[in-house]
Amino acid sequence: MHNVFRLGLKELVSLRYDFVLVFLIFYSFTYAVYAPSRGARMELANASVAVVDEDESPLSRRIHDALLEPFFFPPASLRVQDVDAAMDAARYTFVIDIPPRFEADIMRERRPSVQVNVDATAMSQAGSGATYISSVIARELAAFAQRSGPAATTPVNLVVRAKFNPNLESSWFMAVMQLNNNITLLAIFLTGAALIREREHGTIEHLLVMPLRPIEIMLAKIWANGLVIVVAALLCLRLVIEGVLDVPIAGSVALFAAGVVIYLFAVTSLGIFLATLVRSMPQFALLAFPVFIIMNLLSGSTTPFESMPPAVRAVMQLSPSTHFVSLSQAILYRGADLSIVWPQFAVTAGLGAVFFAGALLRFRRTVTVAQG
Question: Which of 6, 226, 250, 320 is geometrically suited to a Cys-Cys bond with 266, CB 3.0 to 4.6 A?
Fold first, then answer.
């Protein structure tokens, strides 16, 4: 343990003078978390909309006035003959065409149609915006019907309540998931770069002539780089996510930190394993980036894990990122305690043991070749 501790201190000193990696750590846990959370909004915001009011009735004006900020820009008025040109020029994402005698047809219990033209090239707004416009029109029609006659009764009153994120703020989701992705990225690259750096600088031969075992060298790299990531992640959680982004954290930060430690044991071992397969940093980057992208995109942090094909879900059970995303969402979003997330902890620790054994086997072979 004394050797592992001393070697870990050497890793920290080496990292201190590697200004590129220091900058990468600082950037990954500050601006790289802040920018996607503020910029990549999944909810409807500031959509451009125009209304073709061919009815010019009180009901059509109610629909026009119900398109409110900040969901939409103030709706513009458009003539029916100008719709195609406006949509072709991408001036508006949505154009609502209210037909003539719309209110009169509603009063006579007919079924008039309201046309909503959508520029589907704006994919982030097209789906949610069309749904929101439909709900606005339905709400205004229901209010109009109640004022103009007896209210219709239905056997079921549907009430929707959003838990854990009542206003459906995308920044609440994006901030924590971006933190998880950056933890994965740095865990792979810091440990892998540490081993590649030893080989490129020739210091690996110095370590081999010392009375050190490969497992001691590996453990030193894991605890030193893992400590840096844990400290940076917790500071990001408190200062950037809770402080700057004002995202509420529902669960125990200490329990989340324990999950990060176990996850780092697995992912740093994977980084060392990948580093033993190559001989230079460019080769390591070409190998590690596809691995990180797969772990990121298919872990459930970007898209719901349940929406993936069954074969993909089965394969991704072998990835520690899948279980880490699950436990972090349960702890930080829903306030889960250890009695709920212990299966994810156990599986992540088990995968970490497998990755560590594989990395140690590869590292011993690399050391044997170097000594020979």
Answer: 320
